[in-house]
Design a protein that fits this description.
Bound molecules: iron/sulfur cluster
CATH superfamily of the largest domain: Aldolase class I
Strand order of the largest sheet: 3-4-5-6-9-10-11-12-13-14
Radius of gyration: 21 Å
Helix content: 25-40%
CATH class of the largest domain: Alpha Beta
CATH topology of the largest domain: TIM Barrel
Largest sheet: 10 strands, mixed
CATH architecture of the largest domain: Alpha-Beta Barrel
Shape: elongated
Number of strands: 14
Order of helices and strands: EHHHEEEEEEEHEHEHEHHEHEHEHH
Distance between the termini: 53 Å
Length: 354
């Protein structure tokens, strides 16, 4: 039989695989503990397994992780990893520290086909969906890199790719890190962000993880322009799916709203936004645009950002202005990858920092 990558297997998958080799189910738990809780991938060190079993295991499993080819730490503590995923392709993951948490932002696809106009990754067409092992691998590698007293407390699927375009691998990764024999990571600390794949939103509820929606407009006309997915599923359909999610899970949905100068940043937009989200238990993150070369968009000035935020103050929901982190290490998703893969003409450090 062909060898399988251990990191792409849930506990249930592992039980099935071991069953084929005539092994007891509890062996899967033992293996999970060795690999995820003790960080051991050398079968010889797994001393509670019989010698014969240990000798068989290398014929069944590999432990292939995406290699870290860049590891950049920002002056604000943000840490960006660039992973080699083969074929000359790379993806990014980012560790974002804050007062009480350490959030890992992971990628789910190499490039992205959603074409959101403000997004650097969206300019780089999708080459392929990532495997579950590669997504788990980002977590394992980041966890290893921070070893010490720190732990990853939250995972967000807000890196490269549309996670709901690769649901099987994304939710398999959640399954692996959630396992009590693995990282015992709470599902409630995982957030899946979507550009608006409405028909996939019920899967987010089913997997009991949190939902974030990149809203970024208050009318269909503007959203059609900024996020082409809106032509397939319009705002009414998207908001109805969000409402269903909140009813099914009892959780709030987080609406992400990027402020683009002259496009989504007016006071009328802020007023419409209040109406648009009315009746949906939610939080709102407003994100002043992080400029990058050739985006065609600008960041609003500070007064406009403050006025927009202020207009939402009486809405009765939590409205947070997201800080731009890691400006000195290519903050916009996809920028580091673009530089590394040899497109320096698309990027210079000075531009990335403005
Ligand atoms: S914002 Fe997300 S979904 Fe949209 S193009 Fe960028 S990576 Fe894809």
């Amino acid at each position: 039989m062909e060898k399988v990558n251990f990191f792409g297997q849930s506990l249930e998958d592992l039980k099935e695989i071991l069953k084929k080799y005539g092994k007891e189910k509890f062996r899967a738990q033992q293996l999970f503990q060795w690999v995820y809780q003790r960080g051991v991938t050398d079968f010889e060190q797994m001393t509670d397994l019989s010698k014969t079993f240990r000798a068989e295991l290398p014929n069944i499993f590999t432990f292939d992780l995406p290699l870290i080819v860049q590891d950049l730490i920002s002056t604000d503590g943000t840490r960006k990893f660039l992973f080699d995923v083969g074929g000359g392709k790379t993806v990014e993951a980012v560790l974002i520290p804050s007062e009480d948490r350490l959030t890992l932002c992971v990628s789910s696809e190499v490039g992205c086909n959603m074409g959101c106009r403000f997004c650097f990754t969206g300019k780089q067409k999708m080459q392929r969906r990532m495997t579950a092992a590669e997504i788990v691998g980002q977590f394992v590698q980041a966890d290893k890199a921070i070893k010490g007293d720190q732990r990853i407390t939250n995972v967000v699927f807000m890196g490269m790719g549309e996670p709901l375009d690769n649901p099987e691998a994304v939710f398999k990764m959640v399954e692996v890190i959630h396992s009590p024999w693995g990282f015992n990571f709470s599902r409630r600390r995982v957030t899946v962000s979507t550009s608006g794949l409405v028909d996939m939103i019920p899967l987010v509820a089913k997997n009991k993880v949190r939902l974030a929606v990149s809203l970024n407009a208050t009318t269909n006309e503007v959203r059609d322009f900024v996020m082409p997915i809106n032509k397939k599923w319009n705002m009414d359909q998207l908001l109805a799916a969000c409402k269903d999610y909140t009813e099914e899970t009892g959780d709030k949905v987080t609406f992400e709203y990027v402020l683009l100068k002259g496009v989504t940043d007016s006071i009328e937009d802020a007023r419409r936004l209040k109406k648009v989200v009315r009746g949906i238990p939610c939080k709102i993150n407003i994100i002043p645009f992080n400029e990058h070369p050739d985006s065609g968009f600008e960041r609003p000035d500070e007064d406009t950002i403050v006025a927009f935020h202020h207009e939402l103050m009486d809405i009765g929901v939590h409205v947070l202005r997201r800080k731009t982190m890691g400006r000195d290490i290519y903050a916009a998703c996809g920028q580091l990858r673009s530089k590394f893969e040899g497109h320096p003409e698309k990027l210079d450090l000075q531009s990335a920092m403005t």
